[in-house]
């Protein structure tokens, strides 16, 4: 045994002694090394695979006087990296909890928004299809999360079937998430037109145009995601299994050569993410200004109500303004939550296109779980927003829960006052 081999042998004996397997140190081979590393990785007692390998490399570097070339990609280094990696270790469990709650919450959203007295409003139709898209995203995310975060770390197996599903998951989730972005953008523009041109809203905001907006929101995403279909594909890598036998690992990766890689991130970062966020920011600021103007208008009406003959008219107008303000505040909360979720993804996608594969693999992949969690929470929390900010939603949900089991499948007859309020 050469001097360097003897030093590596001694280093591994130290690791065996620290792991409680010193009795087996006399018969060390490649299979034994792999099995011990795998055992330590799955034991979960403070020594994981990464820390063991770091110890091996560090000891070998110091005892053999090796000079390891530093990584030229220095993006996303620092103490915060360890914090994010710690969260990534529990992301699978947290995402399963959020997806379960989100599927139940959005199912209730769909049940309420499809009631006859709610489905008549175009905005409620947009919210319903937004909930449908979120349900599909979360349902599909569950098997992905179970296998990647719970099954794969123990099996350490990368079959072709998993790579195929991972590729499907990437495209399916991006298409439906882009559909959610288009629906949210349509929702904001719809509300802007309804308030800005209130005297012509019955002409501009028609049922036919609402259907067209919904249909466009589901047709446009596959077209926008076409560069992603062409960039990412299944790749292979020669590895060794736990017994030391040669094996092939299948994984999904991008083709970083050529301009198509850059175009993909520019389309994803600018057109799909940053452009809608910019439009939503402008509309949100305008809606905030509209709410402020409405509050000033209500104050003026209260001063005008000192005249007894105008008191009844002022009360009626005040009630209509309050109903409009509640709807605007609810939609504004949805838009702001959407901006908090999508803006970081747009910035990361744009920087990946500008700085290349190095930034993508070091930073975008690092923050991937956090960005996924923000998107899942954004889709799961809408039910709470609707219940807390819409009295009509709460009343319809209460009726849905309290009515007889067989009667809930029959649409209730809308009263004249409800129909009048909805049209208003």
TrEMBL record:
Residues 105-386 form the G-protein coupled receptors family 1 profile domain. GO terms for molecular function: G protein-coupled peptide receptor activity. It holds the Pfam family 7TM_GPCR_Srw. Keywords: Membrane, Receptor, Transmembrane, Transmembrane helix. It comes from Papilio xuthus. Belongs to the G-protein coupled receptor 1 family. This is Putative G-protein coupled receptor B0563.6. It is found in: Membrane. PANTHER family: AT19640P, MYOSUPPRESSIN RECEPTOR 1, ISOFORM B-RELATED. CDD domains: 7tmA_FMRFamide_R-like. Signal peptide: none annotated. GO terms for cellular component: plasma membrane. The keyword Ion transport does not apply. It comes from the Eukaryota. The chain crosses the membrane at residues 90-114, 126-150, 162-190, 211-232, 265-292, 330-350, 370-389. PROSITE patterns: G_PROTEIN_RECEP_F1_2 (PS50262).
């Amino acid at each position: 045994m050469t001097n360097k081999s003897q030093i590596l042998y001694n280093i591994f004996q130290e690791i065996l002694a620290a792991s409680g397997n010193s009795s087996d140190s006399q018969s060390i081979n490649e299979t034994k090394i792999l099995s011990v590393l795998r055992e330590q990785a799955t034991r979960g007692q403070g020594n994981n695979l990464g820390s063991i390998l770091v110890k091996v490399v560090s000891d070998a570097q110091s005892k053999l006087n090796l000079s390891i070339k530093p990584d030229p990609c220095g993006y996303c280094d620092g103490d915060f990296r360890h914090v994010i990696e710690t969260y990534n270790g529990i992301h699978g469990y947290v995402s399963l909890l959020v997806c379960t709650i989100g599927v139940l919450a959005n199912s209730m959203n769909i049940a309420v928004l499809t009631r006859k007295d709610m489905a008549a409003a175009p905005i409620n139709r947009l919210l319903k299809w937004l909930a449908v898209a979120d349900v599909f995203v979360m349902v599909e995310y569950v098997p992905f999360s179970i296998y990647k975060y719970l099954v794969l770390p123990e099996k350490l197996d990368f079959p072709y079937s998993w790579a195929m599903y991972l590729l499907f998951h990437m495209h399916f989730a991006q298409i439906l998430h882009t559909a959610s972005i288009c629906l949210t953008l349509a929702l904001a523009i719809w509300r802007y037109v309804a308030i800005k041109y209130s005297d012509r809203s019955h002409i501009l905001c028609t049922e036919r145009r609402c259907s067209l907006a919904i249909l466009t929101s589901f047709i446009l995403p596959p077209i926008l995601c076409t560069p992603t279909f062409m960039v990412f594909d299944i790749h292979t890598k020669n590895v060794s299994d736990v017994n030391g036998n040669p094996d092939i690992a299948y994984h999904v990766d991008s083709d970083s050569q050529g301009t198509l890689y850059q175009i993909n991130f520019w389309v994803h970062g600018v057109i799909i993410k940053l452009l809608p966020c910019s439009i939503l920011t402008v509309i949100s600021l305008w809606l905030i200004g509209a709410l402020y103007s409405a509050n000033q208008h209500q104050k003026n009406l209260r001063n005008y109500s000192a005249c007894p003959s105008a008191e009844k008219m002022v009360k009626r107008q005040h009630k209509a303004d309050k109903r409009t303000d509640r709807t605007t505040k609810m939609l504004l909360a949805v838009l702001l939550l959407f901006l908090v979720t999508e803006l970081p993804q747009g910035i990361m996608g744009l920087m990946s296109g500008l700085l290349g594969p190095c930034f993508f693999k070091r930073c975008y992949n690092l923050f991937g779980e956090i960005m996924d969690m923000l998107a899942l929470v954004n889709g799961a929390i809408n039910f709470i927003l609707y219940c807390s900010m819409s009295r009509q939603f709460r009343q319809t949900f209460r009726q849905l829960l309290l009515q007889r089991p067989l009667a809930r499948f029959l649409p209730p007859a809308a009263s004249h006052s409800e129909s009048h309020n909805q049209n208003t």
